[in-house]
């Protein structure tokens, strides 16, 4: 077994926040203790930490005259620094250095941005620094926002080719029903269970959370398929990270690496939410793309095009009923694609190397 692993730990707001809304200092201290232990064992650790908005709420009262977006910006701006102060203090106590990395959706939107981000996190790890990542809530508003930090943790885990992603929440893992129900059972190994996600997982979020359990599960399924072991566990349990790594707690999603997923394809798989256009394809193109051969998407199979995408943008590929089939990087822009669509013997809009099927 590999002894030195790259481990990404995502910590939800509820793990870090007291019922009053103030940061739970003992909890943060213990998280850092666990990071120090993992680093002593030779592992590299990256944190994705929520909690800025909750921390801000406990420090200031924003005037009710402010609109919801401004309120969140003010709370995050005040809270992020309070949160990082605590992390910094506890890392320093262990003679360790941590750093702050604030990201937005744009940080992943083009391959250049993506490589920049990868480079930054890898450089910090080379310097033996523990990056603490959060969304830049001060500038990420409305449609510019990620769904939540679960989505970010998945993006970063696949970006740095992590071995393990540990998602820490305030429940022991995924249950067969809402955890408050008496007959709800903890699912230990996700792959061994037939579970009806829509019925098992309610939309409800815990008090300070944003995404809820469904985004955790969707992230876990997608990221495990990109070669990362994923565990969802209870961040309020002492030494939970060691238990999750030994598969002694939480819900586990085993990595099943698809050798055809190159680094570029991984980026494209993760970039669906940044798609700038929709390409509707006919039955022939559908069969060609789904037959497991290395086929590119040719204009002859394109029925309809939506969106003003440019060369290099991510586009979503759909069948004629509007079901999403996959994503790809456009070799040319919408203007040219509109001219070439339905024509034989034209260059591929999406080359196989830049195509991922869901
Ligand atoms: N089937 C389920 N199994 C586990 N948790 C569930 C389930 N259905 C809903 N939940 C809720 O999801 C919550 C965790 O999501 P969230 O509020 O986003 O937490 P976090 O702040 O840690 O990201 C739990 O507190 C729980 O109430
Ligand atoms: N970026 C926000 C956290 C948003 C979020 O996704 O929260 P959570 O669902 O608790 O992981 C903050 O720091 O308050």
UniProtKB/TrEMBL annotation:
Keywords: Amino-acid biosynthesis, ATP-binding, Cytoplasm, Kinase, Nucleotide-binding, Proline biosynthesis, Transferase
Catalytic activity: L-glutamate + ATP = L-glutamyl 5-phosphate + ADP
GO molecular function: glutamate 5-kinase activity
Positions of ATP binding: 10
Compartments it resides in: Cytoplasm
Known pathway: Amino-acid biosynthesis; L-proline biosynthesis; L-glutamate 5-semialdehyde from L-glutamate: step 1/2
Domain of life assignment: Bacteria
Enzyme nomenclature, EC number: 2.7.2.11
Chain sites annotated for binding substrate: 50, 137, 149
InterPro entries, alphabetized: AceGlu_kinase-like_sf (IPR036393), Asp/Glu/Uridylate_kinase (IPR001048), G5K_ProB (IPR041739), Glu/AcGlu_kinase (IPR001057), Glu_5kinase (IPR011529), Glu_5kinase/COase_Synthase (IPR005715), PUA (IPR002478), PUA-like_sf (IPR015947)
NCBIfam families found in the cross-reference section: proB (TIGR01027)
Role this protein plays: Catalyzes the transfer of a phosphate group to glutamate to form L-glutamate 5-phosphate.
Name recorded for this polypeptide: Glutamate 5-kinase
Gene from which the chain derives: proB
């Amino acid at each position: 077994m590999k002894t030195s692993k790259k481990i990404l730990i995502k910590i939800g707001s509820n793990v870090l926040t007291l019922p009053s809304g103030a940061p739970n200092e003992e909890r943060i201290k213990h998280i850092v203790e666990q990071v120090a232990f993992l680093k002593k064992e030779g592992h590299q650790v990256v944190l994705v930490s929520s909690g800025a908005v909750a921390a801000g709420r406990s420090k200031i009262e924003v005037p009710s005259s402010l609109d919801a977006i401004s309120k969140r910006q003010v709370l995050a701006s005040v809270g992020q620094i309070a949160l990082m102060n605590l992390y910094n203090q506890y890392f320093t106590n262990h003679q360790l250095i941590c750093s702050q990395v604030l990201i937005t959706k744009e940080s992943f939107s083009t391959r250049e941005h993506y490589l920049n981000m990868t480079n930054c996190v890898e450089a910090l790890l080379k310097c033996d620094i523990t990056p603490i990542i959060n969304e830049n809530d001060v500038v990420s508003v409305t449609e510019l926002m990620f769904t939540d930090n679960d989505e970010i943790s998945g993006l970063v885990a696949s970006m740095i080719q992590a071995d393990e992603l540990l998602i820490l929440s305030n429940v022991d893992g995924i249950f067969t029903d809402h955890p408050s129900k008496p007959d709800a059972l903890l699912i230990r190994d996700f792959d061994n269970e037939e579970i009806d996600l829509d019925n098992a997982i309610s939309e409800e979020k815990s008090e300070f959370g944003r995404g809820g359990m469904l985004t955790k599960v969707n992230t876990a399924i997608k990221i495990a398929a990109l070669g990362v072991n994923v565990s969802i566990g209870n961040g309020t349990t002492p030494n939970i990270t060691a238990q999750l790594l030994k598969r002694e707690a939480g819900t586990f999603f085993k990595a099943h690496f698809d050798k055809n997923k190159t680094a570029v394809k991984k980026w494209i798989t993760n970039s669906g939410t940044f798609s700038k256009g929709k390409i509707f394809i006919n039955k022939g193109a559908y069969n060609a793309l789904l037959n497991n051969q290395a086929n590119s998407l040719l204009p002859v199979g394109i029925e309809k095009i939506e969106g003003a995408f440019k060369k290099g943008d991510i586009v979503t590929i759909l069948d004629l009923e509007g079901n999403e089939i996959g994503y790809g990087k456009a070799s040319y822009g919408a203007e040219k694609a509109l001219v070439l669509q339905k024509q034989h013997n034209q260059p591929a809009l999406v080359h196989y190397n830049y195509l991922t099927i869901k």
